[in-house]
Amino acid sequence: MKTRAAVAFEAGKALEVIEVDLEGPRAGEVLVEIMATGICHTDAFTLSGDDPEGAFPAILGHEGAGIVREVGPGVTSLKPGDHVIPLYTPECRTCNFCLNPKTNLCQAIRETQGQGVMPDGSSRFSLDGKPLRHYMGCSTFSNFTVLPEIALAKVRQDAPFDKICYIGCGVTTGIGAVVYRAKVEPGANVVVFGLGGIGLNVIQGARMVGANKIVGVDLNPAKRELAMKFGMTDFINPGEVDDVVEAILDITGGGADYSFECIGNVNVMRQALECCHKGWGESYIIGVAGAGQEISTRPFQLVTGRSWHGVAFGGARGRTDVPTIVDWYMDGKINIDDLITHTLPLDDINQGFDLMHKGESIRSVVVY
Ligand code: NAD
Ligand code: DAO
Ligand code: ZN
């Protein structure tokens, strides 16, 4: 079949919206009509050429929602008409990672997904007979796409696509880090570095579980108002204090029980560790640093009881947890609407990237 898609032909170049060829689903695969997709920093990171796994030409996009249109042989858990959210972190439920309760990093299709192909090693997308690469196993910048069955979460049918697409990455990454990975308990003091599309979701996750202090740290004072609406109790602008770590120790009465780095800055990652409470404070890295960058601290920080962790996709097991997060949205327990600042047609997708680079959007969503 033919489908319209925004194709990344080369690193550093704008996407081109064109018609491409899409082969139907093979065994274990599903054809999905994408109804809406968010534009995330990771798409921009790959498009910039800085992503070591980035390969071109490719169809980017990993934060979508849509409708199953056809299933390949052997698919049992989905049928045409089901509403789904694509999962860049799949959940096969049988690999040794899925069977270990300590991780959500299913490895069933990791290698081929990283290469931009389907699990059988081939691409379903092509242009003029030449293959185009898939991206993060999702390629939601195409109106129709093919995914493995294990990379689709089935969700309720009354949830709006243009909002729940954000659960495919940003919402789950932020809220999940609090709920599934760190398991923040009521009354804990939480510090969030970076109040963008991820950090604001960490804040609302912390509020949802009943955290005490929720301290937000951002260089941009304009982030304060929205973060307060999402549950932030205290704001620190690093440009206005002598020492960010000292300021956090003062506000929290000794340090964070949990801190989250949502920027991707290795110097801030150090602050996020060192603002943790002596004896028990836990710091979680969410931000993705540039290729080759390294973190450092004095080992005595760890000897004295602080600990350093990282988390991908909020520690969520997508097929199991994503439908629950959709319920939280539909039940009014979490706010997605105020984070979606711009809605665009596919033809204007490059404007969404511009808004992100200028810091003018939290999330732009393309509606097909
Ligand atoms: P964003 O640009 O929307 O937000 C970053 C915020 O950090 C901005 O508000 C900015 O003003 C602030 N900031 C920048 N430098 C700062 C500094 N030195 N001190 C304080 N504040 C500073 O980005 P986002 O969409 O929220 O994504 C954040 C990070 O999370 C990115 O690195 C992204 O790649 C990563 N990410 C990780 C996962 C995961 O699973 N681990 C998933 C999605 C995104
Ligand atoms: O190695 O098992 C693996 C897969 C790791 C993928 C983690 C991706 C999380 C960070 C990238 C940001 C996603 C939008
Ligand atoms: Zn698995």
Automatic annotation (TrEMBL):
Keywords: Metal-binding, NAD, Oxidoreductase, Zinc. Gene3D superfamilies: Medium-chain alcohol dehydrogenases, catalytic domain (3.90.180.10), NAD(P)-binding Rossmann-like Domain (3.40.50.720). Coiled coil: none annotated. It is an enzyme of class 1 (oxidoreductase). Its cofactor is Zn(2+). One of its GO terms (cellular component) is cytosol. It catalyses: S-(hydroxymethyl)glutathione + NADP(+) = S-formylglutathione + NADPH + H(+); a secondary alcohol + NAD(+) = a ketone + NADH + H(+); a primary alcohol + NAD(+) = an aldehyde + NADH + H(+); S-(hydroxymethyl)glutathione + NAD(+) = S-formylglutathione + NADH + H(+). PROSITE patterns: ADH_ZINC (PS00059). Has high formaldehyde dehydrogenase activity in the presence of glutathione and catalyzes the oxidation of normal alcohols in a reaction that is not GSH-dependent. In addition, hemithiolacetals other than those formed from GSH, including omega-thiol fatty acids, also are substrates. Also acts as a S-nitroso-glutathione reductase by catalyzing the NADH-dependent reduction of S-nitrosoglutathione. Belongs to the zinc-containing alcohol dehydrogenase family. Class-III subfamily. PANTHER family: ALCOHOL DEHYDROGENASE (PTHR43880), ALCOHOL DEHYDROGENASE CLASS-3 (PTHR43880:SF12). This is S-(hydroxymethyl)glutathione dehydrogenase. It comes from Parahaliea mediterranea. The lineage of its organism: Bacteria, Pseudomonadati, Pseudomonadota, Gammaproteobacteria, Cellvibrionales.
